[in-house]
Amino acid sequence: MPILDPRDRLIVALDLPSVSEAEAMVARLGEAVTFYKVGMELTYAGGLDFARDLARSGKKVFLDLKLHDIGTTVEKATARVADLGATYLTVHAFPQTMKAAVRGKGSSPLRILAVTVMTSYDDADLVEAGYAMGVKDLVARRALQAREAGVDGLILSPEEVGAMRALLGPGMDLVTPGIRPASAEKGDQKRVMTPADAIRAGADRLVVGRPITQAADPKAAAEAVVKDIAAA
Ligand code: C5P
Fold this sequence. Notes:
Largest sheet: 8 strands, parallel, barrel
Number of helices: 10
Bound molecules: cytidine-5'-monophosphate
CATH class: Alpha Beta
């Protein structure tokens, strides 16, 4: 990945229940934030038109839809997401799904991110779901399959980033949630890293939600994260 402005490494998660609240947050953050993640909650509350408008206004948009379906459906859905002007789209890291998404984005600038193993899963959850390997091995296996499929990057927890950067080398975008500035509440995130530590571990971009969107001064909170990124 080319050298990025520290500001462009921050992706703010707009995990908000309505388009009007998302619009108000984007207005408050102003020039401090260039990249937004729109997830399922906002998508199912009219957020796709909002995402299109946000992209047209010059912001970068990450649609966190975690697609997983038969190949044809994933391919066509991905093509429609590319039409919206999104920069990132997530899919689950199943080989058929990843290959279909890569076909669907075609020559558009959309970049596909694969979700290897949900961080809410541990080894026991994988056994229960019928898998014969633990989380660490499955993450590594799927990361290599993602690269093989032509996927552009991965969503990883902060503690996976270092090992995956070492495994994959510099080619893929490694994007990391679970970021908490040293001063912030952890919320329901159990394994967290500060922005600077995650960048040092090899992350390209960081997804930060509540530490910014629920701060008394969201813009100041975003600027503090960018400063921490720049320090790394
Ligand atoms: O508010 P917070 O900073 O915890 O938000 C992090 C965002 O990243 C949320 O949108 C959450 O769904 C997403 N995410 C995560 N952990 C993962 C994958 C996605 O926190 N493993």
